[in-house]
Amino acid sequence: MTDKRIKKRFDGLLPIVLDLETGGVNYQTDALLEVAAISLQFNKDNQLERKDLFACHIMPFEGANLDPAALEINRIDPYHPFRFALEEKEALEQLFEFINKEIKSTGCRRAVLVGHNAHFDLYFIQAAVKRCKIKNPFHSFTCFDTATLGGLFYQKTVLARAAQAAGIPFNRDEAHSAIYDAEITTMLFCKIVNQLSKK
Prior knowledge:
With 199 residues, the protein is α/β, with parallel strands linked by helices. The chain has helices spanning 5-9, 68-74, 88-106, 118-132, 146-154, 159-165, 178-197; strands at 13-22, 32-42, 48-57, 110-115, 138-145.
């Protein structure tokens, strides 16, 4: 039986928390290197919580720019053989299969990207979709941005500071990994939604 609570709560949109690691900040030219996506669900107590995780490493697309400053921050060696990275199109196809399965199971009409500075991630996804010529399950312009929500609820817009203000432990040594940042963003978003639900 389809649980329609999440569809009703977010106006037919399915929140998918997404975090990317990239080879720079220019979505048109810089490589997509890591992706982590987390689906959400309501539990028996009507609290929004983490559900499933999809994550993979991605090979830079042909001609992609790799900014040394970005690689120093995220500590990624794009061509290291033990990354077991997928080609960009294959990575997106697997990511979108994960998302579309969740959309179908919840009866939602589209996914909506939840991220910290969410439009950064959305623009990178949109540029990759255009390169790979595949259909994007995400809403084309709407996002739920935890940087904005963190500023409203906790007076902090940086992920580490917003998490700490919300009582969520944050390990700076693990930051700038797509999986870790997606997990923290998920906890922050769920906490904010659940606080609103109590009012």
